[in-house]
Design goal:
binds NADPH dihydro-nicotinamide-adenine-dinucleotide phosphate, Rossmann fold, binds 2-hydroxyethylsulfonic acid, alpha/beta, seven-stranded parallel sheet, 7 strands
């Protein structure tokens, strides 16, 4: 079997773009997400367009029992994972700390931090056993700079930054590379999800500038995973040309 990549949050945005680019480079894929119809569409498109096999895992990364049962059920050949892309994540709300919705906080912490940890805990022992692998964690500018009302989302991405560094240290003896790809604004479903379906408010985030596309981020992921064996990209921070920092953007 040729190489295998497991991508969480592959039903949309950055995860879907990574799936496309890795399939174009002959990777077989394990695609994880909650929306079964979107996974069906992606699997159909990718298997038709590229000569690759796709396994669909319809599961919620917050649910350890569910995700664990789905991964355990994979045929043994599919557990020889070369690349894990920890991408599933979201923001919920944009409120000052004293008005934050605690359910939103739990969703972000459970998905962006605990979900990433669950998936890593399940997949990394397989990589350790084969003494190779590459884990790519999708971080954010929000893990490096805190912006007004970003509080808990920024904290989850700062946690991803710390975990990225910690994983690299712990997995070093096993030949496993660990990379963070940390983008600024990317136009995906992210803002629609943050504003709970308010498309007008989501559109405003990207008004008057050219944000990154999911494809731009996938290309950065591909650059990292296609380096020679002796090279590791520790982190890439990628911004739209019109964004100088988390809060400073040039809108025309
Ligand atoms: P999208 O909303 O387009 O995609 C998010 C993906 O995560 C979807 O496939 C969604 O799938 C999946 N997901 C969310 N929650 C869960 C869950 N509980 N279990 C399994 N899958 C889940 O946003 P992006 O592509 O922009 O986001 C991808 C990553 O990039 C996130 O980690 C985000 O924080 C990060 N990021 C985004 C930036 C941006 O500006 N867009 C900038 C910097 C980082 P489904 O709903 O089907 O489960
Ligand atoms: C998503 C980008 O700027 O909303 O991580 O934090 S931002």
């Amino acid at each position: 079997m040729s190489k295998i990549a497991l991508i969480t949050g592959a039903t949309s945005g950055i995860g879907a773009a990574c799936a496309d680019l890795l399939a174009a480079n002959s990777y077989h894929l394990i695609l994880v997400g909650r929306r079964a119809n979107k996974l069906d569409e992606a699997a159909l498109k990718l298997t038709k367009r590229y000569e690759v096999e796709v396994k669909k895992v319809v599961a919620d990364v917050r649910n350890l029992e569910e995700i664990s049962a789905c991964f355990e059920a994979l045929p043994s050949g599919w557990k020889k994972i070369d690349i894990l892309i920890n991408n599933a994540g979201l923001s919920q709300g944009l409120d000052p700390i004293h008005q934050g919705d605690i359910a939103d906080w739990n969703t972000m912490i459970d998905t962006n931090v605990k979900g990433l940890l669950y998936v890593t805990r399940l997949v990394s022992p397989w990589m350790v056993a084969q003494k190779k692998g590459h884990i790519v964690n999708i971080g954010s500018i929000a893990g490096h700079e805190v912006y007004p009302n970003g509080n808990v989302y920024c904290a989850t991405k700062a946690a991803v930054d710390a975990l990225n560094k910690g994983m690299r240290i712990d997995l070093l003896p096993y030949g496993i590379k660990v990379t963070a790809i940390s983008p600024g604004m990317v136009e995906t479903e992210f803002s629609k999800v943050r504003f709970k379906g308010d498309e007008g408010r989501a559109r405003k985030v990207y008004e008057g500038l050219d944000p990154l596309t999911a494809g731009d981020v996938a290309e950065a992921v591909w650059f990292a995973v296609s380096r020679p064996a002796h090279v590791n990209i520790n982190e890439m921070l990628i911004m739209p040309a019109a964004q100088a920092s988390a809060t400073i953007v040039d809108r025309r």
